[in-house]
Amino acid sequence: MTNGRILAYGLLGLPLAFAALPIYVHVPRFYAETFGMELALLGAILLGTRLLDAGIDPWLGWLADRVARPGMVAIALLPFAIGFVALLNPPAEHAAIWLAGSLALTYVGFSAASVAYQAWGADIGIDSGLRTKLTAAREGFGLLGVVLAAALPAVLASNLSDGIARLSWILPPLLLIAALATFSRAGGTLPSASPFAGGRLAQPLLPSLRRVFADPAFRRLLGVFVANGIAAALPATLFLFFVADVLHLEAASGPLLALFFIAGAASLPLWVKLAGCFGRVYAWLGAIGLSIAAFAGASLLGSGDLWAFAAICIASGLALGADLALPAAIAADLGERQGQAGACFGVWNFVAKLNLALAAGLALPLLALLGYVPGGTQGLAALTFAYALLPLGFKLLAGVLLWRWRHYLEI
Description:
- The protein is an all-alpha fold.
- The protein has one domain: Growth Hormone, Chain: A, CATH 1.20.1250.
- Helix content is about 80%, strand content about 0%.
- It is globular and about 55 Å long.
- The two termini are about 20 Å apart.
């Protein structure tokens, strides 16, 4: 496969990730401050919609093994775009109902597109090396999309809330351009053309999922992914709160987010090279060690520590590149080995979203219980613990599990 086709496949990752950042990072604070929504209610809505979203992913993965994956992606993009625009342009009244409904629509479209898109990459990758490159291209363009989403609100308006609302209208044309390029150049095959088609692909949903979990390597990979994913989801949910209330650097939140994701995008070629030299598992272990050092440093920061936190954003961003490219590439290999990459990525995305749901649905109410109020001075120690020290513990767990199971996961 030529580099042009690899890049064409990866390009669609840009608009998908462009929308993901506001959903997971900006929406909690946007609805909390703009509409005064209580953290407990906000956390409950986020938890409920994300659990619903995660719950449909195994079915979507099963479906992606039975239909043309590019076609499934194309159909899913419409509700995704409509829901995203609605989410960031709520009415003055009934914000809670609007949040739940627009999130549900966005999640359905995003999930269907993402699962089929990931399985499509496993489908056109003929070996583990090519699948690693395709995954890196997808995640690299995704990080560029995240950088754009992080930087544009401050450019579009002096007020963050207005900037986020205007950001939503950029997604539809961006999505159209990227989709046209990906569909015209990336290529692909129908599931029926797979050498694994027939009896196994004709299985109903539950037997298909049982086959996914029957693979001991995939179960172990999921165990590491859960611990590592919770470690990433907690600071993603709490980033804006931490920057504004602990560091008192709210004006710098956009550039700091952009710095984090630029470092992640820049690191992808390095992680691909390291994975080729030392194996994906050992490269991932190195990234986990780097993340642990970054979280430990963040726990020591206080008001005005801009440059120290910028260095931490760079270090944790470098580690992010490995977190995005390497585990998903291993999962793609395991999915192709089973002959049902769609089902594997359906389970994979279910677990990823469950991590995010638990981070938002449990961390925000817990912080409220401990006395933290956005914009206030109470409960800041609890916020620092939840943002930095709790993720550090989960990263340690992920590293221990990955080291213990390293021989099962290097394919």
